[in-house]
Amino acid sequence: MYTRKRMISHVFQNYLLPVSGGPDGEMGASMRYLSQRYSMPFDVARATLTDIGTEELCHLEIVAAIVHQLTRNLSVEEIEASGFGPYYIDHTTGIWPQAAGGVPFNACEFQVKGDAITDLTEDLAAEQKARSTYDNILRVIKDPEVCDPIRFLREREIVHFQRFGETLRKAKEEIETPNFYAYNPSFDTKGSSYR
Q1: Tens digit of pLDDT for each residue in 129-142?
Q2: Angle 23-86-73 from CA coordinates, rounded to 5°
Q3: Cα angle 84, 86, 91; round to 5
Q4: Is 143 left (phi over 0), alpha (psi -120 to 50) or beta?
Q5: Pairwise CA distance, residues 22 & 89, whole Å
Q6: CB atoms closer than 10 angstroms to residue 143
Q7: Can you give the pLDDT at residue 190?
């Protein structure tokens, strides 16, 4: 039978740490949005990406605070019994963003294409993947001290999805062409042709 600390360190290692640095984690989301904003040709899109990218940094802080609270004051015995040892050897109980498989965070975790339609569509998918990740965490973890903030973060992913949907609709309205998928509005001028 797991003690509370042993169970919590297992939860940290296998479920929460990937939310910070995994492929659908908060660090990738913040870097994605804050990087994409520079090539957005519309003020409303730049503002949305700045707002949500900044909020994602706050989400990263929430996850890091949960992880810290779950792992502080672990005994050596609890570390060994929980399977937390390999992480502990490299990082003690510091917050080091990685995926569930132990792969460290890197820039390959997010995409920036420099095309308004492409990037906003990417952002819609990213928010749905983050929501799905939180759904999966809530199916596995039952501790209310962990679940309550995770539910809050999940709700914010839904709001971000809605905001990106509105922003994509506005971006399509701004583009002066009957086929806005035919060129990159962030780079090409109206009438560019591809052959």
Answers
A1: 999 999 988 998 88
A2: 100
A3: 90
A4: beta
A5: 20
A6: 13
A7: 57
